[in-house]
Amino acid sequence: MKNAAALYLAKDNPKEDYVIHVMTRMSKLKKTKKKSVSKLKKELDIIFSQYIRLKYSRNDVSSCITCGTIKLWRELHCGHFVSRQHLATRYEEKNCRPQCVGCNVFGKGQAAVFAEKLTQEYGEGIVSELYKKARAILKVDSSWYEEKIKEYKKVQQELEEKEKKSKASKLSNEEYEERLRAIVQYKKIQKQQEEDELQEQIAKERKRRNITKKVS
Ligand SMILES: [Zn+2]
Question: Mean pLDDT throughout 158-174?
Fold first, then answer.
């Protein structure tokens, strides 16, 4: 209604255009105040993923459940044994482990090896247990997500504090080597990414300059 009034005003006075602008912005702000379920789901995905990767890391380093590659936890994904499509197991800790991009994306999760590793850890029956759970229809609302986000934020903080304390304790030579290797690899990737970005920028700028040359 307020917007309609502003529109009416603006018809007679073009200077009032900004009123519409401000009012539209205000109504947009009001709408975004309460987070949507999809936004909360994304938020929980991020927090849960960080938690899973931290849970299985030591001194910032973790390994891929299916191929064993050692990497900094930030470089790994949170791999799901039963696909993330199933909400009932999307945030099931038993269903999730750190996994490298190669196995998670290009290897489509390496389900057979994943199943083997989970069985080693939880015993026979874990695979059917997870499949059964995944089939359940879970109906959740925004407060369910808010609760979960709160819960995982808390446990993640606890893990980070624990990690900080353990860093103060001495690493074994093997752990130290692993950590160094992972850091070197991470730095290499970062450097390559920076280089690629720079090259891309240069290419863009060249293109832009050529275009302006043609115009003038
Ligand atoms: Zn892997």
Answer: 77
pLDDT, one tens digit per residue, over 26-50 is 555 555 567 899 999 999 999 999 9
- Given this model, what pLDDT does residue 8 score? 44
Listed in sequence order, the residues at least 6 apart from 50 whose beta carbon sits closer than 8 Å to its beta carbon are: 78, 156
**Selection from 125, 107, 6 nearest residue 64 by Cα:** 107
Alpha helices in 75-110 (DSSP H): 87-90, 101
Q: Give residue 100 CA to ligand 1 midpoint distance, Å.
A: 4
Spacing, Cα 109 to ligand 1 middle (Å): 9
Cα–ligand 1 centroid distance for 63 (angstroms) = 8
How remote is the CA of residue 193 from the centroid of ligand 1, in Å?
A: 21
Range with lowest mean pLDDT among 116-130, 169-183, 185-199: 169-183
Q: Say if CB 72 and CB 104 are below 8 A apart.
A: no
- The Å distance, Cα 77 to ligand 1 centre, comes to 10
Distance CA 21, CA 158 (A): 45
Contacts of 90 (CB under 8 A, 6+ apart): 45, 80, 84
62 CA to centre of ligand 1 in angstroms: 11
